[in-house]
Specification:
By secondary structure, the chain is an alpha+beta fold. The protein has 2 domains: 1-99, no CATH class; 102-148. The protein is 32% helix and 30% strand. It is built from 4 helices and 7 strands, in the order αβββββββααα. The protein has helices spanning 6-14, 104-116, 119-126, 130-146, and strands spanning 19-27, 30-37, 53-56, 60-67, 70-76, 79-83, 87-90. The chain has a 4-stranded mixed sheet with strand order 1-2-5-4. A 3-stranded antiparallel sheet has the order 3-6-7, with no helix packed on it. A hairpin with a 3-residue loop joins strand 6 (79-83) and strand 7. It is globular and about 45 Å long.
């Protein structure tokens, strides 16, 4: 029987490609998983262009789908890049859209639930407020319209 590597376990449980798990801890807000993008070069958060690093930001948290009844957060200290087109921006991370504090998987779940149940129930189930549900729905619709 093979012993589980905790980093590989969390990578598998998170379901997010292109990230490495550095550690995990129980904290007051829930389970916090420290992650790093696998990509070495920094990319503009808006356009995805490879850009030179400007400096680093303090660690940020992104809300992910719960692990059982425990809220799950990804923590990373993103770099800021200097994009010739967009100026100084926070680098692109593989688990979230630019300017979002939620992972793509979390936002996809919220958008899916919002199609199938009322907004109040979605808020209670996901532990977020009305405005956040509305923002996530707007982003999901915009992404799908841009794809066509």
């Amino acid at each position: 029987m093979e012993r589980l590597d905790m980093g590989k376990l969390f990578e598998h449980l998170l379901g997010v490609r292109d990230l490495s798990v550095c550690g995990a801890s129980f904290e007051p807000q829930g389970v916090v998983v420290d992650v790093e993008p696998r990509q070495r070069e920094a990319r503009c958060g808006v356009c995805g262009r490879v850009c030179p690093c400007y400096d680093s930001c303090p660690p940020r948290l992104w809300r992910h789908l719960a692990l059982g009844q425990e809220p799950l957060w990804l923590r990373h200290a993103p770099r800021r890049v200097e994009c010739p087109q967009h100026g100084v921006r926070v680098e692109r991370v593989p688990w979230a859209e630019h300017d979002s504090r939620f992972t793509r998987e979390f936002e996809e779940r919220v958008a899916w639930l919002a199609q199938r149940m009322d907004k109040s129930t979605t808020c209670r189930l996901m532990g977020i407020n009305w405005r956040t549900v509305g923002t996530i729905i707007e982003r999901a619709v915009e992404q799908r319209l841009d794809a066509h």
